[in-house]
Write a structure and sequence with these properties.
alpha+beta; two-stranded antiparallel ribbon; 11 helices; elongated
């Protein structure tokens, strides 16, 4: 008993500088020493109730329901055209969707000018797509020589015609997809009269040397220094739908007679975009 009292006294002496509130309780069989530092007592430990699946009839069905909920099953997933609270999320979701399931650009057995312009515009904007060959008779029955298939932001499964597809690409670059670095804004078709006359003459040209030289001289006057030094037809420095139409014509001329005698601005204009025109 004397040893117990001495032990208690020693502990009281050691801990006296922390808190004077010290109590000792001694019994005949054991001694319990307790002291408090003014802190709140911890709540009693609560034991979790164990669920035995063998004795819980609904355990399996409830667990399956919770697993289904965690996996997101039974919920409507994001679809092109849906809008979230963050425009950047909208752009990322749409672009990721098209990367996984690219839009399909149908083209005839012999690629024509409308198809080449459409492909060039989609490539310049940066919209993921793939080219799928289709019989010319099938495309002719639609009344158009180009169709873009796939789920898009306008909730349409098909866009027909070169003008409609180019307008769609321009709208995507200026709107939903604009926050992405992979996307480039382009200028829509301007409807310039001088450009319309030039395109009509180029389309009806038979490749004569003098006629081609005159067309190239006119094209040289229409070209401006674009953004980052890349030439284009627009005064604002942006590549546009007009550029796609002119580049397709110039590419056709170059394949017939070469570019050795071309004016320097026109040659550089074509060479800057040649990698997107090769087919």
């Amino acid at each position: 008993m004397g040893m117990v009292v001495a032990l208690v006294s020693g502990l009281v002496h050691v801990h006296a500088h922390f808190n004077p509130t010290v109590s000792a309780i001694c019994t005949t069989r054991h001694c319990v020493l307790g002291w408090s530092y003014g802190c709140a007592r911890a709540p009693p430990l609560q034991l979790l109730q164990f669920v035995d699946p063998d004795f819980t009839p609904r355990f399996a069905s409830e667990e399956l329901a919770r697993t289904w909920e965690r996996a997101g099953k039974g919920k409507r997933t994001w679809q092109p055209g849906d809008v979230t609270d963050d425009p950047r999320d909208d752009a990322r979701l749409l672009y990721s969707h098209w990367k996984l399931t690219p839009l399909q650009l149908l083209f005839p057995e012999s690629a024509n000018g409308d198809f080449c312009r459409t492909r060039l515009v989609l490539t310049q904007v940066g919209i993921p797509f793939e080219c799928v060959q289709a019989p010319s008779s099938k495309l002719a029955l639609r009344g158009e020589y180009g169709s873009l298939l796939g789920s898009n932001h306008d909730r349409e499964d098909e866009i027909e015609g070169e003008q409609a597809i180019c307008a769609f690409a321009t709208r995507m670059g200026e709107g939903v997809l604009k926050p992405l670095r992979q996307i480039s804004c382009i200028s829509p078709a301007t409807g310039r009269k001088d450009l319309a006359v030039w395109l009509a003459a180029a389309g009806g040209s038979n490749g004569d040397g003098e006629e081609t030289a005159a067309l190239l001289a006119q094209a040289s006057q229409m070209i401006h220094s674009g953004t980052h030094g890349v030439p284009c037809l627009n005064m604002n420095g942006l590549f546009g739908v007009d550029d796609a139409a002119v580049l397709v014509c110039l590419h056709s001329m170059a394949r017939k007679r070469g570019t050795r005698d071309w004016p320097a601005p026109v040659r550089r204009y074509l060479e800057c975009h040649l990698d997107k025109l090769e087919w």
